[in-house]
Amino acid sequence: MKNLKEIALLFFKLGVIGFGGPAAHIAMMEEEVVRKRKWMEEQEFLDLMGATNLIPGPNSTEMTMHCGLKRGGWAGLFVAGGCFIFPAVVLTGLLAWFYVEYSQVPNIAPFFYGIKPAVLAIIAGAVFKLGKKALKNWQLGVIGALVVVAALLGVTEVVAILGGGLLGLIWLSVMQTDGVQKNSLWLGLLLFPKKLGILLGASTVQMGDISVSKLFLVFLKIGAILFGSGYVLVAYLEGELIHNLGWMTQQQLLDAIAMGQFTPGPVLSTATFVGYLIAGFKGAIAATIGIFLPSFLFVGLLNPLLPKLKSSPYFRRFLDAVNISAMGIMLAVCLQLGQAILLDWQSVVIALLSLVAVFQFKLNSAYVVLGGAVLGYLFFLV
Known about the structure:
By secondary structure, the chain is mainly alpha-helical. The protein has one domain (about 1-380). Helices cover about 80% and strands about 0% of the residues. It has 16 helices and no strands. It has helices at about 1-15, 20-35, 40-50, 60-100, 110-135, 140-150, 155-175, 185-200, 210-225, 235-245, 250-260, 270-300, 305-310, 315-340, 345-360, 365-380. The longest helix has about 45 residues, at about 60-100.
């Protein structure tokens, strides 16, 4: 019971301060779970992160579930995931109500002006720490560099990570031929989510009038086939809700996505906003449960299999390559965010101060985010 309380408090806090998207969430989790609380070793954290990239759903949210399962068993899985999702869902729901009532949302831009550079420093810190652990040999370094280039050229996250993993499997296996019998169990695991995604993706929900149950099924399908980060959600929502069903306008969807990015926690809390716009309070609940429910299932299926999978030398090489590929994706995100965020001297100053706080003083990410928000607000006013 004590562990569950500890899990709940930690992931609720991360849900409150978790600005900046999946890369930032992973960085904050690594700091809290590995470095501060020592619930697991860095290698185990990396392996879980790598494996999570291979299943559908929001990666950072699923990582909270893995961490909760490690610390508090099956109950911990649900407590961690629920507490991480809860703050974003509540805040997004309140913004949706405000949007419907007043056709606009409160002006919170000044705070995010400073939070974004601070989050950039947090991501950089995680890439440096986890990257050192993931970089086991020069071959993995080459693979990581190739993934960075691929990501910067526009290759999707899933393709880049799987490509890096397969390249590592082939390259490292050729270099380390030891006659060990090939274990194909990992292949079935990798193909299972894809097969499930194909089956669910092929089934379309025919809609006439909007009902809460039909709304739930739409978001359940999206949650079950959504590979990559939460930002891929935009394409899914546009295809389903605008082109196929005509439930929303383009402007409403853009506003919903903006709210999902402004609020802390998982970007998939956008579903709460969309559900409220379409069917009110019940719609918000149905959409939220629908889009997050598959993640609990996939993590529950994947986690117990990992120890057996890692006993295969082939899967170990594949996972090592996936881990360095995930670091490459995070580094690419960091570079892209820096190009988009560091546009004036104020944002550069906030980023530099945040880097000093992360690397020199090793401040908790909560204080870094809070400091960035305060500085951003002050700079925004002058």
